[in-house]
Design brief:
- It is a single chain.
- With 108 residues, the chain is mainly α.
- The protein has one domain: Winged helix-like DNA-binding domain superfamily/Winged helix DNA-binding domain (Arc Repressor Mutant, subunit A), CATH 1.10.10.10.
- It contains five helices and three strands, in the order H-E-H-H-E-E-H-H.
- The protein has a three-stranded antiparallel sheet with strand order 1-3-2.
- A hairpin with a 2-residue loop joins strand 2 and strand 3.
- Helix 1 crosses helix 3 and helix 1 crosses helix 4.
């Protein structure tokens, strides 16, 4: 069984190659995915069984469902690369704590 990350990498590679008029070849996918040939073969077979990819000899194309999964995986990868910003509630908690200290100081 191919790993899920290899299958996602294959879907994303097929998405990038889908703009061309010709289907992606095994050697093109191998160069883009970066896994070994047997793992790529297993991933393609698994994706074909799931009906996310249609295969014809040494070439492969995304099915409509495969296109949807590939687009979602690419969007998720882009979101994961964004830098998290500090949240405002932490600053509010600090100011509430400071206000409580000031109140205690004035009460004493």
């Amino acid at each position: 069984m191919a790993s899920m990350s290899t299958e996602i990498a294959v879907l994303r590679a097929l998405l990038r190659l889908s703009r061309r008029a010709t289907p992606a070849t095994f050697s093109e996918l191998l160069a883009r995915v970066g896994s070994d040939a047997s793992e790529l073969q297993r991933a393609l077979a698994s994706l074909a069984r799931s009906e996310l990819v249609t295969r014809s000899g040494e070439s492969a194309r995304l099915s409509l469902a495969g296109l949807a999964v590939a687009v979602a995986a690419s969007a998720q990868a882009r979101r994961a690369k964004t830098v998290a910003r500090p949240s405002r509630p932490a600053a509010r908690v600090l100011s509430i704590t400071r206000a409580a200290r000031i109140k205690r100081h004035h009460a004493a």
